Amino acid sequence: MTTQPVHDGGALIPRPEKTFPALRAALAQVAPSRLAEMTTERDTVFTMATQANSFGPIAMFQLKWATVIEVERFPDIARRLHGAEYAAQTLEREDPAWRAAMDEIREIMDAARAQVASG
Asked: Are residues 68 and 58 located together in one domain of the fold?
């Protein structure tokens, strides 16, 4: 008989550094299905940074993916986010539950971004 591991609600992995290799390795652990998306976006962002002669796009890329990983490190928070995203995509905008879902998404992402920025 196979049993699923029990998770205590803490972080699955430590918060990674904001370098591309560390972010990629962390994403591979917490949300491997998004690796192709990250790689495609990285290529686009690095091209933009080169064309603009600016590190701004790279810094935004790092912040975005560090925030995604921050959410995914905590399964309960990730489930809340994904549930709210599903509701936001399937409900009518006139439905009060749509606004509640959007508020939940913003709250989760803002909190994760603040953790990444302070940590």
From this structure: yes
